[in-house]
Amino acid sequence: MLKDLKLSHIVSGAVAVLVGYTGSVAIIFQAIEAVGATQPQANSWMLALGGGMGVTCLILSLMYRMPILTAWSTPGAALLAVSLNSVPLGEAVGAFLFSALLLTLTGITGWFAALSRLIPDSLASAMLAGILFQFGLTAFTSLQTDTALVAVMGLTFLAGRKLFPRYTIPAVLAAGVAWCAGTGAFGSFNALDLTLARPEFVMPAFSLPVLIGVGLPLYIVTMSSQNMPGVVALKAAGYQPPVSASLTVTGLASLLLAPFGGFAFNLAAITAAICAGPEADENPETRYLAGVMTGLVYILVGLGGATVISLFLIAPKALVATVAGLALLATIGNSLSAALADSTGREAALITFMTTVSGVSFFGIGAPFWALVLGLAVNHLLTPPARTPARAGKPA
């Protein structure tokens, strides 16, 4: 395994963790504050979430030799941030366990794998392109807030694509860090918190209203807004992910870590796209090492707890946004190309893409789920059914 390890694997893993944390850490803190957790309990949440993601990434990537990445449920965290006010922490943990049990049963029964096979590849690619679109867009909107930094990184990207395509994104990251260091764009390092996180067990309590009002919606949003795009991300990259096994692993991790703050784990989409694309490795068979590196970095981040979070806080937002956006350009382009290639299903794919980009949400369920619902409905209405070949000896 070590002989196949490349710098691009390490950088892709680091970028995936960077994107995963910076995109939703603030939401996690809002959920922590809503439930009234103490500082040690808050540190335990970050330890459980980072460690859980790291271990599940390692298990799945090594077991199946695919860049299978996991993540905490970001829409689940948003749900918790608005639903846990006045809910005792023990009852919140009980809701986490209820959701985790449902996630585990979903993986064991295998019905989600059967459902994922019913989605046309064009719609899957369209949804992935829509999910990643906003991240690609931020690489350009950041030009307005930090023109010089983004321009340096953009020029490095163009030079890299021309001269050293395999190391384009590492060069972009290095150029961005060097520019920030030289211009003093990083915040004060005196703000670093070197406290190590420790696990804090919370005894679960069970309340039927909290199970129905928090646990069940947490399961629904995690399945519809997280696991489905996660499967799509790997399929769009040419992999056939072990869906049921992956959901079982993430569900069991949620069960084990819920009392420590690991409220829900699921398949990752955006970070998986970073590690499953050609920027991580030209050889699809060894891209799983990017997933392994991601898992190791996640574990270190979890152990570092507040230290790593404070690092993210002193880094310019434009640096993270530009690295993520440029790293995903190839995947966005390939997904759009695959989505719109077949003229017979183009309208359905375009509607799927536009609905995903819109960010609409109904009943607490995010846009990717509704994009697939609309896309499948339009595809069924507009795509002619396959014609059955005529039997020999009878008129066609």
Automatic annotation (TrEMBL):
The chain crosses the membrane at residues 7-32, 44-62, 93-114, 126-155, 167-189, 201-220, 252-276, 288-313, 319-341, 348-373. Keywords: Membrane, Transmembrane, Transmembrane helix. The keyword Membrane applies. Pfam families: BenE (PF03594). InterPro entries: Benzoate_Transporter. This is Benzoate/H(+) symporter BenE family transporter. It comes from Leisingera daeponensis.
